[in-house]
Design goal:
This protein has 176 residues and is mainly alpha-helical. Helices cover 84% and strands 0% of the residues. InterPro entries: Tyr_Pase-like_PTPLA.
Length: 176
């Protein structure tokens, strides 16, 4: 069952990921109060990985794809209820705690699994990569592997700042 995860949910995951690009619009439009850079990094990480998985059928049956989808969905289940309550101006300390305290380590694990997925995909890309192209695709993926921890570090740093800001705001509101 784990190996057939992509065949079972790949289309729905792809559609949901396409719609998640709206998150960037929601932040820039002011509908959602969140930092743009971490969300942009998160959405782009998912887009790149999902495109790679769609293009490489050999990767679709790997167990890391199932684990990756599980982590992505868990992360979204932790994030979206908190964001919804914030948009409705009814923040919850419990949701805030779960959003950040559970979300950050799961995000780091998700990024590590992304790295494993990209690393496992490299042998399948090499034979099919065109050497006549200006940029060699395996080289780009190795560069992506190097930049992945940098992007994740920026995201975690921003999320920790966001957590502190939300906690201070809730603390001030409770004092009133």
């Amino acid at each position: 069952a784990l190996a057939d995860t992509f065949y079972s949910v790949g289309f729905v995951m792809s559609l949901c990921q396409l719609l998640s690009n709206l998150e960037i619009y929601h932040i820039t439009d002011g509908i959602e109060k969140a930092r743009l850079l971490p969300r942009f990094i998160q959405v782009m990480e998912k887009n790149i990985l999902l495109i790679m998985v769609i293009m490489l059928e050999e990767i679709q049956s790997k167990h890391v794809v199932c684990v990756q989808f599980f982590l992505w969905n868990t992360l979204d289940l932790l994030r979206y209820p908190h964001e919804l309550l914030c948009v409705m101006e009814r923040p919850s300390i419990t949701m805030l705690w779960s959003r950040y305290t559970l979300w950050i380590p799961l995000y780091i694990l998700s990024v590590a699994i992304e790295g494993v997925t990209v690393y496992q995909a490299l042998p399948y890309i090499e034979p099919s990569a065109s050497h006549s192209a200006y940029i060699h695709l395996p080289f780009l993926l190795m560069l992506y592997l190097l930049l992945l921890p940098v992007g994740a570090s920026v995201t975690v740093w921003q999320l920790l700042k966001e957590k502190k800001h939300h906690l201070e705001k809730l603390y001030k509101n409770k004092k009133k």
